[in-house]
């Protein structure tokens, strides 16, 4: 697959230095943490996003793990860069298209950015249901 | 091409052996053997024809056939097309049923699909878990109208070997034409067509250190097999395949076969050692599945699934190693390997398979290096994998309700 330099760099950075690149887990039971897992092993990709939110609804930390192709892993990383420091309302407006554009994803890999957007929505919904 | 990448994809194609390249060079320039083998009126043509016939003998010699049974084609894909469509069209009044298997190469499956569109009936057999097709399975599906059975000798993804001797005895007895795609086996397994009851066999030069763009179809003379030609235009190759013969390509294939015959044993012994060394190195990786059967498969192909890792990301992480993924995530279809699915592997395992294939120029140092790199990147990718976390937490992935998309 011919990927853009950006995808390759994000993928390699994540692979070679996971701790510095938002790979990991947050406490799934904490009330300040929202978790969203999307995708299925049979489809070839599963993304798990966790966000940590402070009292003023700002996303202060994010962690992810992703099973999938190189662009799925790069999309996860890109998504997290876009999420950090945003309020929940701002985060809700992130669109898959923005992620795909920044990474110059090939058309056949657009589903990776769609998956990223879905995981944001699910993580926020989880946080909101915990704090309703 | 200067590259630091290590080539572990010999099953997809091989580099040309330097001895082959040397022979090919001699058939290109004005002071070389450049003539048209079909030119009967001058020495340039006679010499080219001589070279072509010598190469035909070399190919025939490798598989113990009569050189008059070798028809030059552009490669195994054309050979498969000529064999399958050629038989179907010639014998259509005798019957319209063809048997093949679900794990054939696309060069067999696609012509079969085309024939279905033209009114033929095709049965696609299920393979065993070891990647072979058993005679009992064939017997269950043979009908009065069966005219052709087409099976591969060695499966290109798994390295599994079909028992073409046994199957041939049966098809001859039933008067059914037996075609074997031997693209992966030429130069790797001993093939003796004077003993095998195979009627048609497809070969390709570039899988055994010859050039791309040339292959051959073996067409048995006794008992005689007839074909309807696909390409018309001059009646070359006794009408089976028209078109000016590519002397340099043909000479290259001949030389590759000559070398293969001489060195098959040496090559196989070396590759077997390397393959064992590789497997010993990587088999201690947790949750790894060898696709195919280690005891009965050929040594040059090792197909492995690494659970909880997706194949394309593994290929990307193995950036200095040239391998191929059973997962077609690298192609346009985003489908897991149809071969592994036909073996009954779960989709996630079919998504995570990698084929490592070695050849004549592979070194022990390369094997060690690739094994070490593989171990490292598998560990790294599992570190990123939510499925690996779940596995370590003892979650049964089959019980999870996934959000399919």
Order of helices and strands of chain B: EHHEHEHEHEHEEEHEEHEEHHEHH
Mean pLDDT of chain B: 94
Q: How would you name the oligomeric state of the polypeptide chains in this document?
A: heterodimer
Rounded to the nearest angstrom, the distance between the terminal CA atoms of chain A is: 44 Å
Largest beta sheet of chain A: what is the strand line-up? Answer: 1-2-3
Tell me the Rg of chain A in angstroms: 14 Å
What would you call the shape of chain A? globular
Strand order of the largest sheet of chain B: 2-8-7-6-5-3-4
Unreliable stretches of chain B, pLDDT < 50, 5 or more residues? 327-333
Shape of chain B: globular
User: Given the structure, what is the number of helices of chain A?
Assistant: 5
| Helix proportion range of chain B | 25-40%
Percent strand of chain A equals: 15-25%
* Structure classification of chain B: alpha/beta
Number of strands of chain B: 13
Q: Unreliable runs of chain A, pLDDT <50, ≥5 residues? A: none
Helical proportion of chain A, percent range: 40-55%
